[in-house]
Protein 1
Amino acid sequence: LPGVVNCHLHLEFSALAGRVPPQERWEDWLEATLAEFARLSPAEVDAGISRGIEALRQSGAALVGEVTNTGASWPHLEQAPLQYHLFYECLGFDLLEQKDLTELFPFFSQPRVAAAAHVSAAAHAPYSVSAPLFRAIREWNGARGRPQMVHLGESRAEVEFLARGTGFFEGLLKRRGRWVADFSPPRLSPGAYLERLGFLGRSTLTVHGVWLEAGDLEALRRSGTWMVLCPRANRYTGAGTPPVAAFLEAGIPLALGTDSLAGNWD
C-alpha cells in the first residue's frame, strides 16, 4: 500500500504522551503542555522522540513533516527508515530589528543546514512571531526555494489578539518576558495578517485553520497556500473543529497531520 504522509507533527513532545489529558479549552491545554514539557529531562525528550518515530512507522507513515524548536529530532530522523522534511520553528514576538535569520538563530548558520534541501525555517504563529521575524523567515526560505510552515487560526484567542492585542496571549507573553510595551495590533484576521506580511503562497503550509473567516479562506485560495488539518488534535486540545467543507468548497489544497502526542491520542 502507498505510505502515509503525516504532514505536521512535533516529535520533541512525544515524551508527553499520556501526561496532558484532553481539555475543553485550548488555552488550558497549552498551559498544561508548557508546564509538563519544562519538567522533562533531555534524556526523556530523546527517548520520546525514538518512541514517536516507531509509532509513525507502525501507523504506516513514509513521509513526515517534523516541526522542531531545538533540532533534537534531526539526528533521530537521519537514522530512521522515513523520508522527512524538517521545519525549524522560530519564535520571537519581541524580535523587532530587521536582521538576517542566521543572526537571530544560530541553527541556520550551520553549513549542513544551508546544504540540506529538506530543512526549512518555520514561523510558530502570528501571536508569537514579530513582523520583522516573519520577513526574515520568508526571505531565508525564498532565497533557497524551500517550503515554510506556520500555525494559523488554531484558537479563538489568536483572533482576539490580532484584532485587539488583548486576552490570553497578552498575559502569556507578559509572563514569559516576551511582551512589547508599545505593541499595536494589526486589527486583521489571521489570514489577512499573513497576506499583508507576504507570508502566504504556494510554498507555505498553514496548520489547523479552526478559526478562519471567509476572507481568510479567500486569501489562502488566491495565493495557493496549503492548509494542513489536524482534526483529532483539535478535538483533543479543545481548539474546535476545522471547517473542512468550507476549505473543500474554496478549493484550498489540503493535507493531514497528527500534531504532537501532547495533544492527541496517538
Protein 2
Amino acid sequence: MEILLDTANLELIKKYNEIYEIAGVSSNPTILSKEKADFFPHLKKIREIIGDKQLHVQVTGSACEQMLKEAERIVSMLGKETYIKVPANEEGIRTMKALKNKGFRVTATAVYMPQQAMLSASVGADYVAPYYNRISNLNADSKAVIREISELFKKHDQSTKILAASFKNTQQIMEALSAGAQAVTASPELYTQMV
C-alpha cells in the first residue's frame, strides 16, 4: 500500500514526509497554482524535500506532440524518478505509448471508467488514477469501478497499479483501498483525520 500527498505546499510536504512513510507527492495544475510560485523552481523544492520518492507531474497540453515536449522538459528538470501524468483520452493514450517506448514513467490520470484504465495499461502506464469522488459525482459506483479495474488487471496479469485520487473524506480512501487500489493520493488533512 502506497500513500502519496496530493499537495504542492512545501510546509505540509515537509511535515507529512516526517510523520508518515509516504511514497511520494502528486500534483496537478490546480494544486500548483494555489502556491503562486514558479513551476520548476517550486517542483525542484518538492524534489529536495522528498529525495528520490515518486513525484507525479501533470502535462497541460492537449495534443500528443505538446505533451511529449512537456514530459521531456519535466524529466530533464526533475529527474527520471518523475512520473508524467497524462489524461486517459485518445491523445493521452498515444502520448503514454510514446513515453513508455522512450523509458518514461507514466501515470494515466482523469480515469473515470475501467475501459480507460485497461487501454492505459495496454500501452504500459505504470499507474492509473481513478478519480473517486468525481466518479461518485457522475452517479457511478466508485468502489465498483476500482474493483473492476483491479479484477481486470489481475485477470490479464497487468503490472499497472491503481493510484486512487480525488477524495472528499477518509471513508472514500478506505473504500478505494479495500476495492483493490494499491496506492492513494490525498490531501494531508485527510491523513490527519484518519488518526
